[in-house]
Design brief:
By secondary structure, this protein is of the alpha+beta class. It is built from one helix and five strands, in the order αβββββ.
Length: 106
């Protein structure tokens, strides 16, 4: 009887350890905010788009529509942007910022 209990107990302990370990990995949903930059701080660490304060980290990829890589200093008010990021308890963290060029009117 003890021989049969060992594999069962071992499998239960394995499943519980997986449950505890994997619960720490939560899938975070990527969200998109589009609009015009209303404000940016002097250090270019935060921008405000559509009344949402967005954290811009050194890892944030900033590009224009042609794929040219831009710097955080290029994020000025009145630029049209599309921001991809993750909503965190502390706010919205940008992972990618696409700077849109204004359409030329004929």
């Amino acid at each position: 009887m003890n021989v049969q209990k060992f594999p069962f107990t071992k499998s239960i302990i394995f499943m519980l350890s997986l449950l505890v370990f994997l619960s720490g990995f939560q899938v975070k949903k990527v969200e998109t905010i589009s609009g015009v930059i209303e404000n940016s701080d002097k250090d270019s660490r935060f921008i405000v788009v559509d009344k949402a304060k967005i954290f811009v980290s050194p890892d944030t990829k900033i590009v224009d529509e042609k794929g040219k890589i831009l710097k955080t200093e290029d994020l000025n008010p009145n630029l049209s942007v599309e921001v991809e990021g993750i909503q965190n308890p502390g706010g919205f963290a940008a992972t990618k910022i696409l700077v849109k060029t204004p359409k030329k009117r004929p």
